[in-house]
Amino acid sequence: MLRKCRLIICAITLMMLIQSSFAAIVLGNPKGKVTLDFVYDYQCVHCHHMYPKILKLIDHNPNLKVRMMPVAILGHMSLVEATAAIAAATHPGKYQELTNFWMMVRPTSEKEVNKSLKIFGLGSKAFAKSMHSKMVEEQLNESMKVLGQDGTPVMVVYPSNQLQQSRRFVGSKQYKTINEAINHA
Fold this sequence. Notes:
There is one protein chain. This protein is an alpha+beta fold. It has a five-stranded mixed beta sheet with strand order 1-3-2-4-5. Helix 3 runs antiparallel to helix 4. It is globular, with a radius of gyration of 17 Å.
């Protein structure tokens, strides 16, 4: 009996580790019935165009779970912003503040990124070190798996926990198109 309990605990722990390594940064309803994976690059103008639509989708769909998945495919600044955003997710509210700031303006320079990190209280050496952590690396790798061979942005809509029933969208799309996919899921 004890061995069976240990096996069950190991299986549950493994499932939690798998889910947490693929958890992404969740906005909207964490227990939503529909999931939208949003894979984006902070330096991508098309991603900047989609971001307000993603926020609007969250506002208009109370059962929507959005998994924000930054990637770094457009150069050095992409990597700096993506790693900073993922690391900021470990500080309550900071991921959303940074992402709102960076996505609502044009793609930024390294000087502007460093200045904004200081403004949001993330300019310490300890924070810079956390940008190079294993957790950040794993999150970037998971985001790249969802991105696949496509460019950004990528949106994948599916009933939560049923990825096999997904609809994939690449590039900037109309709000109506994504909202219909959410309603269908």
